[in-house]
Specification:
The complex is a heterotrimer of chains A (293), B (529) and C (381). Chain A is mainly alpha-helical. Chain A has 8 helices and no strands. In chain A, helix 3 runs parallel beside helix 8, helix 5 runs antiparallel to helix 6 and helix 7 (225-257) runs antiparallel to helix 8 (267-292). Chain A is globular. The termini of chain A are far apart. With 529 residues, chain B is an all-alpha fold. The longest helix of chain C has 34 residues, at 33-66. The radius of gyration of chain C is 28 Å and the shape is elongated. The relative contact order of chain C is 0.09. Classes of the chains: A mainly alpha (293), B mainly alpha (529), C alpha+beta (381). The interface between B and C is large, with 108 and 109 residues. The complex binds heme-A (2 copies), dinuclear copper ion and copper (II) ion (CU). Dinuclear copper ion binds next to loops of chain C. One heme-A sits between chains B (144, 257, 260-261, 303-304, 306, 322, 325-326, 329-330, 333, 362, 365-366, 368-369, 371-372, 377, 380-381, 386, 389-390, 393-394, 397-398) and C (49, 52, 56, 92, 95-96).
Chain lengths: 293, 529, 381
């Protein structure tokens, strides 16, 4: 495994086109499904299957090349920078939803409730004169919720607090695994990863339980006005990211078992760990702004 | 799927594969650059044809040709296709072709990803174009897609939204690649402050895109859930606000217009020094100005929303912040003029387009500045004055920069000199007709003609007729451009030498390579002094 | 050079064939103090830009003329001058300041209605509908819709073959204009019924969006009597181009007279509506009345011939609803449906609803044969 001097340049990329076909089929199918066409759902699953197959192929290829020692330090650096900027773009994706939450709480709900400005007062007076500005709310028309538009807000101190502990400690365990890897201690690496993945899954399971409660008991759904919208879109996309992160970590775990990583070369591990920390930080934002305040 | 990529490990020199699959599977930055550029040209034609439908309907008062719904859908698709299909891919194509060469890198940093960034585009456009054949027609709520109107879209809505997702992913991946390439692949000695300005403007552009495309994706996702999953982001009855959409959209939308113009600034900053035979004036202030524009672009978005009833503090803040952008942009204009000052200029086609850019972009900038002043914009907003503004910055702005870039680098890409006579003809026809098309629109707007209308009151007839005639001449002139390109690609015309333009060697690494450059360049990094 | 000749020919034709309509080149000065101030601000920033433009372009042109290779010049090699660069950062900044200060003043004037003497004399609530305006004079009991006038409406149809130049104020005329007194401070409260519209009369110096679910505002004090025209300026769907605004500013006395007329008309109309709500009409009466109502309220979407626009607006011809149970049909018109079909219970009188329903069932290619009387409409609440 001599380090190459030349930058590794693949000469053919067959995966991307399948990626495009997969994504296209997935989204065209989803669109048709939303438009009420019966074939849409099938098309969607076919697309998803192609996409997943493609991802396996693509990552498989990269792993093979990496194990074969094709990549020098410069390639490694490219991967690192690529991952960092990818995570940065994800941060901005979440920023859009946090922005929506902020706007609803600071502006639109107070205005509808007659606060904030003269126009707020008039909006309230002429259009929504029974509405009071409170948070959480499902809006002046009490959209969604149970009978009469009632719903319960999610409290921060039950499952969410536990989930915060879970995710924070999973951030710790993945770092502990990294120390193991750096020290050449494979046992610690693997144990650390197993615990991390398990914590991730536990988190997702608890959140699924929380969602179930919300839908069946609390009258809180995606359709429960602005509170339901922001709550489920933020926590939902976060949950999706936790799931993806856990899958990535699971793959890294498998690769650790196969002995792919050395204390010097383990970009995949680091990328997974960064991603995990990112998911962690987003959760803190959620915990504070969605559940707590 | 093939494992060929994995076994193809040895980095040996060989030319491109043959046949169609070369283009589908390619990881070569020049091939991908070419794909981007050709796609952009086709999209420019498609978007332009839609503009001609708009102009044809507006030739006279009264409805002659199309239903207003179809008119709206033409305006919407015209804008989306020109922006996401024409200008952005064209600049990404230039980046692919030129950045590795300009910084002395063997290729883009992540070649497979590069392939994907391109190959997402055609699929995105098929998704978008397919809406024209759907029940209810294509999207017709304007490229800004404001709710609640956009939620009245028929079957086209999810397709439009997902096509934006796909195009967004493509832009993000391309931006990541460009950033990584510049930061990780520079030849030894190519310090950041030695980078050609085109590369610098692209770095800033790429940062902008990484920040804004995900926001757009999130925002249109909210539209989707509002329509299909019962959320209330933009619905007052549920506690949301239609204006929230506008804030989110313009947080994307304003930096987006700089995504379209910053690389143009880069191109112009390459072209003018070459033909003035003088180094670029104020290199470092150019870099700082670009960065300032990038920064400011994030805090000015609500200048598109002066009429939504913001509190006065908001109106004034966004007014001041927007006005500030004139300062760094002015620095650029002054630097270009100073670069020409006391140079030894010649006026080949690229230079002609560059000079026209400086003149006409500046005019668009002036109207922009006027609109940034909120009390005045209460009159200008949503009139043809704005249509004139943004076409001045986009057509003789971004599109002229693309023409300049094409004529400038075409001999390098193809190894053939383009036909200078045709180039000049293209320039003069284009430069005159663009003004015939868009200058009268200033008057229309000030006289009170709203934008996005399929029919208008008779006092607007005369200028609209001018504008339509101009647009058709403009469209015709572009056929010359296409012909010039096809000729060069087919290898007709004089052979170009390495340097192409007299003294160009001083102005960039690309002019030290053969024309056309070999399939792989800089396998050993060049030495930078 | 054939191309140039062709171009010239076309341009010549364009110029000669068109009567020199009285067009304007510049922003209107308008008829309020505010609109004058906005106009002055506009002229100030325009001239500053023109000035800077002349400066920059002259330098550029000078350079193009004198610093060209064909003149045998040797290119200079300078590429920096810190003093110069600081100068052209600072000076533009100062110029901007000189625009920002007057701009701020005008903005404060626009926002601060207190700069106007006296309290608001009249408040009008303006609601944007697809595609008409509704004006409610708060506290006066006046409330009406303002549609594109019938002549323009006829001429604007695709393939109508009516020369717009022959229609008075083509696309800028309405059936019921807004009438206001001069020299009084009128406050407008805006909101949207369906989508965002924007209310713009250039002579007043501003426009304001009408956001569904929110109130926005604006005010005028018109200095001289006259008819002022404007248009909706926010894309609001298919007929965005066809919802003009006409404001007639009258001297106080005439305004009062108009007001009194409206009130008595309004009372008469209310009385009539009340009477009609329980009246029994003949089928022919209903159909005749229904046709009027249909053309004024429904045809913009469902089309004058009832064929609708596939994908966007369903056809009335052979519609299952129209040919189904009559109560369901009436309820749909009263309550609206989905995002697009507006509820008409607050817009039309019971007799009008009954009439349009009956009309739809017996015309536009339908021949259901039945009718509904105002009193038989499903209960409203
Ligand atoms: C390439 C695209 C591009 C560029 C570069 C710009 C540049 C600018 N734009 Fe423009 N703009 C658009 C594309 C662009 N715009 C589009 C597409 C829309 C419409 C979107 C829609 O609604 O569909 C729009 C709309 C738009 C609006 C909204 C109007 C409205 O809807 O009411 C405003 C308002 O502030 C604005 C302002 C500006 C300003 C201040 C600049 C500045 O960057 C300009 C700076 C340049 C100069 C000022 C000239 C050079 C400077 C000097 C020579 C120095 C000295 C000068 C002075 C001190 C005055 N633009
Ligand atoms: C990069 C962006 C870009 C570019 C390049 C253009 C280019 C052009 N645009 Fe437009 N335009 C926008 C971005 C752009 N535009 C945006 C953002 C909007 C706002 C949309 C909205 O309101 O939502 C808009 C809206 C817009 C309107 C206003 C619509 C309305 O408000 O109702 C008009 C009207 O004149 C117009 C015209 C044109 C014309 C004539 C060109 C010309 O420059 C195009 C010239 C190109 C060609 C003509 C194609 C090349 C040649 C051929 C295809 C060969 C065939 C030719 C012949 C047969 C003659 N555009
Ligand atoms: Cu109402 Cu446009
Ligand atoms: Cu902007």
């Amino acid at each position: 495994m001599a380090t190459k001097t030349a930058y590794y340049l693949p000469h053919k990329a067959s995966h991307p086109i399948f990626g495009s076909i997969g994504l296209f089929t997935l989204l065209a199918g989803f669109s048709n499904y939303l438009n009420g066409s019966p074939a849409g759902a099938t098309m969607m699953w076919v697309g998803a299957a192609i996409l997943i197959y493609m991802l396996f192929g693509w990552f498989g290829t990269v792993i093979r090349e990496s194990v074969a020692g094709e990549y020098n330090d410069q390639v490694d650096a490219s991967f690192r920078m690529g991952m960092i900027w990818f995570i940065a773009s994800e941060v901005f994706f979440f920023a859009a939803f946090f922005g929506a939450l902020h706007y609803a709480r600071m502006y639109s709900v107070p205005w509808l409730g007659g606060e904030g400005s003269a126009l707020g007062v008039e909006t309230h007076q002429y259009l929504w004169n029974t509405f009071e500005s409170v948070w959480p709310t499902n809006g002046p028309a009490h959209i969604g919720g149970k009978e009469g538009g009632h719903f319960e807000a999610m409290s921060a101190w039950g499952i969410p607090a536990i989930n915060t502990l879970i995710l924070l400690s999973s951030g710790g365990t993945v770092t502990w695994a990294h120390w193991g890897l750096l020290a050449g201690n494979r046992g610690q690496l693997i144990k650390g990863l197993i615990v991390t993945v398990a914590l991730g899954l536990l988190f997702v399971a608890l959140q699924a339980f929380e969602y179930h409660e919300a839908y069946t008991e609390m009258g809180l759904t995606l359709g429960t006005g602005i509170y339901g919208s922001t709550f489920f879109m933020l926590t939902g996309f976060h949950g999706l990211h936790v799931t993806i992160g856990a899958i990535i970590l699971a793959v890294v775990l498998l690769r650790s078992l196969k002995g792919h990583f050395s204390p010097e070369h383990h970009f995949a591990f680091e990328a997974a760990a960064w991603y995990w920390h990112f998911v962690d930080v987003v959760w803190l934002g959620l915990f504070i702004f969605v559940y707590w305040l | 799927m093939s494992a060929a990529a994995a076994t193809h490990d040895e980095h040996h020199d060989h030319g491109p594969a043959r046949g169609l699959m070369r283009w589908v599977f390619t990881t070569n930055h020049k091939d991908i650059g070419t794909l981007y550029l050709i796609t952009a040209l086709i999209m420019f034609m498609v978007g332009g044809a839609m503009a001609l439908v708009i102009r044809a309907e507006l030739f006279q008062p009264g409805l002659q040709l199309v239903d207003p719904m179809f008119f709206n859908s033409m305006a919407t698709l015209h804008a989306l296709i020109m922006i996401f299909g024409g200008v952005m891919p064209a600049f990404t194509g230039l980046a692919n072709w030129m950045i590795p060469i300009m910084i002395g890198a063997p290729d883009m940093a992540l070649p497979r990803l590069n392939n994907w960034s391109f190959w997402l585009l055609p699929f995105g456009f098929v998704l978008l174009a397919s809406t024209l054949f759907m029940e209810g027609g294509g999207p017709a709520a304007g490229w800004t897609m404001y709710p609640p109107l956009v939620l009245q879209t028929g079957a086209a809505l999810p397709f439009t939204i997902f096509s934006i997702h796909i195009l967004g992913i493509s832009s993000i991946l391309a931006s990541i690649n460009i950033i990584v390439t510049v930061f990780n692949m520079r030849a030894p000695g190519m310090s950041l402050m030695k980078l050609p300005l085109f590369v610098w403007t692209w770095i800033i552009t790429a940062f902008l895109m990484i920040a804004i495309m995900p926001v757009l994706a999130g925002t249109v996702t909210m539209l989707l859930t509002d329509k299909f999953f019962g959320t209330s982001f933009f619905n007052a009855a549920g506690g949301g606000d239609p204006v929230l959409y506008q804030h989110l959209f313009w947080f994307f939308g304003h930096p987006e217009v700089y995504v379209l113009i910053l690389p143009s600034f880069g191109v112009i900053s390459q072209v003018i020094p070459t033909f003035a035979r003088k180094p670029l004036f104020g290199y470092s202030s150019m870099v700082y100005a670009t960065a300032s524009i990038g920064f400011l672009s994030f805090i000015v978005w609500a200048h598109h929303q002066y009429t939504v009833g913001m509190p006065i503090e908001g109106e004034l803040f966004f007014t001041y912040a927007t006005m500030l952008i004139a300062v760094p942009t002015g620095v650029k204009v002054f630097n270009w003029v100073s670069t020409m000052w006391k140079g030894a200029m010649t006026f080949e086609t690229p230079m002609l387009f560059a000079i026209a850019f400086v003149v006409l972009f500046t005019m668009g900038g002036f109207t922009g500045l006027m609109m940034s002043i909120s009390p005045a914009d209460l009159q200008y907003h949503d009139t043809y004055f704005i249509v004139a503004h943004f076409h001045y910055v986009l057509v003789p702005g971004a599109v002229f920069a693309l023409f300049a870039a094409t004529y400038y680098w075409l001999p390098k890409w193809t190894g053939r000199m383009y036909d200078e006579r045709l180039g000049q003809l293209h320039f003069w026809l284009t430069a005159i007709s663009v003004n015939v098309t868009f200058f009268p629109q200033h008057f229309l707007g000030l006289a009170g003609m709203p934008r996005r209308i399929a029919d208008y009151a008779v006092q607007f007839a005369e200028f609209n007729a001018w504008s339509t005639v101009g647009a058709f001449v403009f469209g015709f002139a572009q056929l010359i451009f296409v012909y010039v390109i096809i000729k060069a690609i087919r290898g007709e015309g004089e052979k170009a030498n390495d340097e192409v333009w007299e003294g160009a060697r001083e102005h960039g690494l690309e002019w030290t390579l053969p024309s056309p450059p070999p399939y792989h360049t800089w396998e050993t990094a060049p030495e930078i002094h | 050079m054939k191309i140039f000749k062709l171009l010239l020919a076309v341009l010549g034709w364009v110029l000669s064939s068109r009567a020199r309509a009285d067009y304007t080149l510049n922003l209107t000065e308008g008829v309020t103090k505010l609109s004058h101030d906005v106009h002055d601000l506009h002229m100030l920033i325009l001239w500053i830009c023109v000035g800077i433009g002349i400066l920059v372009y002259s330098l550029l042109i000078y350079s193009i003329i004198h610093h060209r290779k064909s003149k045998g010049v040797v290119p200079a090699q300078f590429h920096e001058n810190t003093k110069l660069e600081i100068l052209w950062t600072v000076i533009p900044f100062l110029i901007l300041l000189s625009m920002a200060i007057p701009a701020t003043k005008v903005m404060i004037e626009i926002y601060n209605s207190d700069t106007m003497p006296g309290p608001t004399d009249l408040t009008v609530k303006v609601t944007g509908y697809q595609w008409k305006w509704r004006y409610e004079y708060l506290g006066e009991g006046i409330d009406f819709f303002s549609n594109l006038d019938a002549k323009s409406n006829e001429a604007r149809q695709l393939g109508a073959n009516i020369d717009p130049a022959k229609v008075d104020n083509y696309l800028l005329n309405v059936d019921n204009p807004l009438v206001i007194p001069v020299n009084k401070k009128i406050r407008f409260l805006f909101t949207g019924a369906d989508v965002i519209h924007s209310w713009w009369v250039p002579d007043f110096g501003w426009k304001k969006d009408t956001i569904p679910g929110f109130i926005t505002d604006g005010w005028v004090k018109v200095e001289k009597p006259g008819i002022y025209r404007g248009q909706c300026t926010e894309l609001c769907g298919r007929d965005h181009a066809f919802m003009p605004i006409v404001v007639i500013a009258k001297p106080e006395a005439e305004y009062q007279q108009w007001l009194a007329e409206q009130k008595s008309k309004g009372e008469a109309a209310t009385a009539q509506a009340k009477a009609e709500a329980v009246k029994t009409f003949t089928k022919d009466e209903l159909i005749a009345k229904g046709q009027e109502v249909y053309n004024a309220n429904c045809a913009s979407c469902h089309q004058p011939n009832g064929e609708g626009i596939p994908g966007a607006f369903p056809a009335i011809t052979n519609s299952p609803v129209v040919n189904g149970p009559i109560e369901e049909h009436a309820r749909l018109v009263l309550k609206g449906k989905g995002q697009l079909m507006p509820p008409f219970e607050a817009v039309l009188k019971p007799a009008e609803i009954a009439a349009v329903v009956t009309y739809q069932r017996n015309a536009l290619g339908n021949s259901k044969g039945d009718l509904i009387q105002p009193a038989e409409l499903p209960a409203q609440n």
